[in-house]
Amino acid sequence: MIPLETINTEVEKKQISPDFVRISAASAMALRMRSGRFARDFDFGGINILLNYENGCLADCGYCGLARTRPGDYEDKSFIRVEWPLVDTDELVERMAEYTNTMTRLCISQVTHGSSHADTIAITKKIVAKMDTPLSILCAPPVLNRQRLQEYKDLGVDMIGVGLDGVSEKVFHQHRTDVPNGSLSWDNYWDIINLSREIFGPWKVNIHTVVGLGETDKDMMDIFFHLFDNQI
């Protein structure tokens, strides 16, 4: 089983959430927190924020760059094969507020870790105190329940994302459950999807899927029709 209890760490000595987060390289460039330029001139308005822990994500999905048993130090691992600079959360919030006129949506991405919920709450409070840009949470279902989803809603989060990834139960089990330190549950993910739909309403829950994990075309079409029928 994944140990989801909150792990005692000396936050003041470590660059971990909620005091520090990772943002995509593009977000860092858009907020002038890192040098660089885009291939064309445009207003970059979507900021991706990833929680960061010394011991990383406690899941072990077979295809993920942050997988627990993936070789190498966690600091050298990549979420989606691009650089994710580590930044001070307070500085990030101030910088986003400075550029609020170009911000279109912010997203906090959780990882499967016992501190994820409390840290998401802390970061969300900092953000909503400074700006009213639409805020999403890409959630980690193993650390959530109805009460916690409602807390996000009450704080002003307007959309929930769930990284289901595997579009059939067979594919999900193969890559997310039946792996060395897996044990993620297909049923748990769908429980959180359905609760999110109930709490946040129609078209306010989005599901991430991955193509190429061994699913069939029919698997893809079946889940897309199911989600559409349920206004997800």
UniProtKB/TrEMBL annotation:
GO molecular function term, any single one:
iron-sulfur cluster binding
Keyword Metal-binding recorded: yes
* Coiled-coil segments: none
Q: Which stretches make up the Radical SAM core domain?
A: 43-232
Q: Give the matching Gene3D superfamilies.
A: Aldolase class I
UniProt keyword terms in alphabetical order: Iron, Iron-sulfur, Metal-binding, S-adenosyl-L-methionine
Report whether Thylakoid shows up as a keyword of the record: no
Protein name listed in UniProt = Radical SAM core domain-containing protein
Q: Which organism is it from?
A: marine sediment metagenome
